[in-house]
Amino acid sequence: MRLGDPKAKTYKELGPQPTPYATTLVDKAGRAHTLTDAMQVAQFDPATGKITMRDIEIGGTKYIPTPKPPIPTWKLAPDGRTAYAILMSDPTLLELDLMSAGSTVKAKRHGRMIEGQHPDCRCGLDVGPDGRVYAVIRVDNETKFGTGYLHHLVRFNPKSQKSEDLGVLAVKNPDFFDFGPGPDGKAPPWSHGYHKLPDGTLTPLHHHMALVVGRDGTVWVTIIYPFTVLRIERLALDTG
Questions:
Q1: pTM, rounded to two decimals
Q2: pLDDT value at residue 175
Q3: Taking Cα atoms as reference points, which of 212, 208, 206 lies closest to residue 228?
Q4: Which of 120, 149, 167, 181 falls between 20 and 30 A from 54, CA-CA?
């Protein structure tokens, strides 16, 4: 965890070691928060220059994630105090109150955003301008309609306290990239990140690497192999 001064181009080490994939959230009071390997919240208050380490507490019990390191993704809600988090290998959605009083950060579970074997979420969570939480999660394809993996777009509604599966990502313009073999009879390098379902639908296979919700509600997802930006329009998803 570092503090930087862009004008002076200087940086100083603040202390705690963030967990892999860690990001920093700044609450509405201007305090910076990050997550450590032990899934503690490290808070830096620029008004005092001090760092506070706090456990996450759910229902009076310390939250201990598995496996370790947890590799979480977390994002700040529009209220500037609520953070939503998900682990790479666990689709259980957590809600944290970054402005909790006391020695711990109060949190609660909202259950699994999707069921399925071997869930995988890589920086694939964000909060929309309306407060709803979106995530892209890859699970094993157990539908018996094709093989491999399927990437689902899911959404949590804080008002209804429920998650919904918005469906599997499907590419409407499959000719955006030439997946065909070259003169040597081989597929283009780094082009193995998509596959086709039995009906010909092109869908991501291996890994996504980010999800962002725009101010207008449009959802953007990046896929690697080849590196692609997928756009999911808001109106196609807005079910209330």
A1: 0.92
A2: 95
A3: 208
A4: 120
